[in-house]
Structure formats: C-alpha cells, structure tokens
Design a protein that fits this description.
Strand order of the largest sheet: 1-2-3-4-5-6
Order of helices and strands: EEEHEHHEHEEEEEHEHHHEE
Oligomer: single chain
Distance between the termini: 50 Å
Structural class: alpha/beta
Helix content: 25-40%
Number of domains: 2
Length: 274
C-alpha cells in the first residue's frame, strides 16, 4: 500500500492554518523524495533527518507544488542539508529567484520517480500559475498542494497570478481522475475526494452568485462586496477575501458578465434575481 509519511512543516498562521504538510516517500533501496519544502524550520529539518535515518534513506529529490513561500522557502535549507538532492518545480521565475537553489523544470505529463514510485506531473493552475499536482497512478493518490484545504476554502490570489476559471477547471480535472485519496498541503488527508471536490465547486458557484447579487444591489467595488458577502470575517482574512472577490469579478469580466470602469464594477447583463 502506498503510504507516504506526513511531516509537518511547523508553520501555523492565519493563512496556513495548522501549518503545511510535507510528504516523504522512501524506498527500500535507500532513495527518498519529499513533496514540498516547508519554510526551513529547524524542527521540520530535524524530523526529515530522523525519518531518513530510520529508513536508512537519503534525500534525492524535492518536488515543489508551487512557488508560494510556505511551500518553497525551505528549499535552500534542504539544499544545504542534502547537497545531492535535486529540486523540481514548474518555473515561475520571479518567485523562484527568492529561493536560490538549482531549480530543475518539470511540467505537464512528465514522470518523476519519488523513492521507487512513479509520479505523473499535472499542471494544475488557478491557485497560482505554476501550481503542480503529483499523481500516483497505481494507487490513484494525488498530492494536491494548495488545491484543497479540508475544512476551509482555497485563496485565489488574483494579484499574484491566481485565476478562478483555471482553478475551477483544475477541480474538474481532478474529479475526472477518480482519485482514491488526496494528500493536501494543509489539513487532513482526504478519503472522499469526489465529495470534497464536488463541494468545492458548489462553494465557488455559490460565491459567484453572491458576487453577482452584490453587484445587482449596487455594491461596485471590492471592499464593498467583501463586506456584503463575508459576515463576521476575521480582520486578518479581509485581504484574502478581497483577492477572492477580485478573482470572481475578473472571471465574470472575461465571460462578458461584468465590466469595470475606473475601479468600479457593474453587471454587464441584466440580472435575474430568480
């Protein structure tokens, strides 16, 4: 049975929840791979080292789902600790330059060997333009990075390359794979992928309806729409909510259903309240 070891990155916070999950895949022949790099916390590094020693393995490759800090910032510390390890991700040059390691590019359709297990690389944009998922076809397990966060929703950071239409297409793609489990970068392992992915798509469609209703009611900027549709929101999450609202508005604009003039938004088609 395919059972990667979950190793916590020790970085809880308002945007990371209980912190990041990283996953170690170690093979009997002593090779090992890590999914996502964390932030370089010493406790994370110590736990990786302990797990490798227990398995008499060496870290050969680090696969990074995307270039956000909580997934990639630990790469330099890992490179120092494991100088023979390779670091693979889809290029996002302006972000990758923040983490000076010898990044090797991977992308859609590539196969990488993690430990002794084959992983198919899937380009899964939406949360970020460089986002990858890694699909273990023999078990139908998917390492999903930030595509899902059980018990919460995913931020679509519009100002840093997030794209809601791409994200929803990515969720549909994951559904089509009929995965057995999802191993996310935040939160618990998902044993009912279809249920969660279907709920995520329904949630996004609900939010889109709320944004349309807010526009119809006369709310014409992002802060106003945030106040209209997010009730009792933690102040620390207001900026993130604004990014999500802007992502919805941009999707509606591309679809010809909303328009923007000088930062003010309006519906571009008659609104049917039914």
């Amino acid at each position: 049975m395919f059972e990667p070891l979950l190793i916590h990155a020790h970085n809880p916070g308002p945007m990371t929840g209980s912190g990041n999950n990283t996953y170690l895949i170690a093979a009997p022949d002593g090779t090992a791979a890590l999914i996502d790099a964390g932030i370089g916390d010493e406790r994370h590094l110590d736990e990786i080292d302990r797990a490798l020693r227990q398995r008499r393995a060496r870290l050969d490759v680090v696969l990074v789902t995307h270039g956000h800090r909580d997934h990639a910032a630990g790469a330099p510390a890992l490179a120092t600790a494991y100088p023979r390890a390779r670091f693979l991700k889809r290029p996002w040059f302006e972000e990758d330059a923040n983490y000076p390691v010898a990044w090797q590019p991977v992308g859609e359709g590539d196969e990488v060997i993690a430990g002794d297990q084959p992983l198919r690389v899937l380009h899964t944009p939406g949360h970020s333009p460089d986002h990858l998922a890694f699909f273990h076809e023999p078990s139908r397990v998917v390492f999903t990075g930030d595509l899902v966060v059980p018990g919460s929703s995913v931020m679509i950071h519009w100002s840093r390359g997030g794209n809601l239409a791409d994200y929803m297409a990515t969720l549909e793609r994951l559904l089509s794979l009929e995965p057995s489990r999802l191993l996310p970068a935040h939160g618990a392992i998902v044993d009912d992928p279809r249920g969660l992915l279907t709920a995520y798509l329904a949630h996004r469609r609900m939010r889109e309806g709320q944004v349309i209703d807010a526009l119809a009611a006369g709310y014409d900027d992002v802060p106003g729409i945030v106040k209209c549709i997010y009730h009792g929101l933690d102040p620390a999450l207001v900026t993130a909510a604004g990014e999500n609202v802007r992502a919805h508005l941009e999707k509606l604009k591309v679809e010809g259903r909303a328009a923007e003039v000088a930062g003010r938004w309006r519906l571009d088609t008659p609104h049917d309240p039914s």
